Amino acid sequence: MPPVSQAVLLSWSVPPAATLALILTALVYLRGWVLMRQARVPFVPLWRAVSFLLGLLSLWIALASPLDTFSGFVLTAHMLQHMMLMMLAPPLILLGAPVIPLVRGSPTFAAREFAGPFLNWRIANRVGDALTHPIVALLLMGTVMFAWHTPRLYELALASSSWHQVEHACFFLASLVFWWPVIQPWPSHARWPRWAVVPYLLVADLENTALSAILVFSDRLLYPSYDAVPRLFGFSALHDQAAAGAIMWVMGSLAFVLPAIVIAVQCLQSNRRPALASDRKPEPSSLEVLVALSQRLSFAGRFLRRRVSGRRVEAISFLLLFAVTGLCLAHLASNSSDDDNQVLRLRQQSGQFAISIFAPAGDLETGQSDFSVLVQNRDSQEVLQDATVALRADQARNPHKAQWVRATTEDSENKLLQSASLNLPDNGQWTVDTAVEHGGEHADFSLPVHVVKPAAGISFPWSYVVLLALSAILLFTYLRRHRTGESQLRHPAAKTAAQGGAANLF
């Protein structure tokens, strides 16, 4: 295998927070699936669990593989990543019928106090029904696809790691909503007849075809960032754009048309022998499923007959688990390094070399800053991986503080780049000198940067804000639910009814 191809395959950008979240989701689902199998619930066979895990795996590959690392260099890689986020991971996850297994696999306190009541909350059901209505889902999918592929929003995602993550979240969530009427995961109910899914998918294919045709047949480059970055694989940015549109056209059409054909065949077969109304058994609702599970699991009765002290232990255990997990996710999300935060700061040629230097956008803050260097042959554009690269940060008023640092590929997600961290202790104008040597040839490059002191005030990472907001929502939900329950139990009739309902549910 050529060294460049090997370096590409090794360029994984594993997101710690997303990886931990996906692992926890898989464990919760598997726990719920095992408990349901023990209760002999027939609606979640083994193939559904396998499909759910494959969906999570495909989602992780889309976020962590070289597709993400090179998404800012090659539009084709970015498009393949989008296809996995929209056409592969969501339907596989929904085929796993994830709602009830995730609820059943959650900690008992969380399932009883939050997940179960949320599934039967009228407002949540109305919002869910509105979002998964086929017309709404189709419009949402088309809007998200076209909006994020407009040059302004697409360039925003390329320039900012945070907006790039927002883009991925929009694609994935909109695709979950879109594929919901197609998969109709148990125990949800279809809003339209099954045959109506066929034109639903064909209209979505028309939207995909229109967008991909714009990329394929456009005679100008829609996203200038791909023309600014160095070309790594020998084809122009315009050819890369056409290839990305072709991938979107073919893969998208297959993802929409093949399920439409399968559903059409199923509808034709089912129409040969109409089922009698007496033969049809309605699928149980979420509440009925939770009731059945509580009655059939052997330990459920023991759990619900515990004293108040047992519930306190469960509450304390959940709080500790929630705090530890939430803090770990928030810490990983706020401290994870990401090459997406770097932009092209210098592209210059000298001698046989053509180098590109990447660094954080805008003014740099005092302290450590990361720089990445790509060295290519000036004529052939071949990546010179064995070139020796050294960096030095120099300030005219403090020349004694300058020192050379060797750049390597060890700390770089993109193994075609050589990275190093430079210390910029003082604010002011600095010069980052880059020395490149390969095959007896030597060249020097200089990048001027402006360094400023960090802005005054407390910087509060968004991940901790999200954790605090989620904690407040859960606390408010718990207090409101129990306050409402206590006020209802003051009346004898309501108390008798509540006791009877609790006996049936648990």
Overview of this protein structure:
This protein is α+β, with helices and mostly antiparallel strands and 506 residues long. The chain has 3 domains: 3-274 and 282-305, no CATH class; 306-336 and 457-506, no CATH class; 339-452, Immunoglobulin-like (Sandwich), CATH 2.60.40. It has 19 helices and 9 strands. Strands 3-9-8-5-6 form a 5-stranded mixed beta sheet, with no helix packed on it. Helix 2 (16-38) runs antiparallel to helix 3 and helix 5 packs across helix 11 (161-183). Residues 275-282, 297-309 and 493-506 have low confidence and may be disordered.
Brief characterization of the structure:
The chain is α+β, with helices and mostly antiparallel strands and 506 residues long. The chain is 59% helix and 14% strand.
How does the SSE layout of this entry go?
Blueprint (H helix, E strand, L loop, with lengths): L2 H7 L6 H23 L7 H19 L1 H4 L5 H21 L3 H7 L2 H12 L2 H10 L2 H15 L2 H9 L1 H23 L13 H21 L7 H4 L8 H34 L15 H11 L1 H7 L3 H28 L6 E9 L2 E8 L3 E2 L1 E11 L10 E7 L9 E3 L11 E7 L3 E11 L2 E12 L9 H28 L2 H14 L1
Parallel strand pairs: 3-9
Antiparallel strand pairs: 1-2, 2-4, 4-7, 5-6, 5-8, 8-9
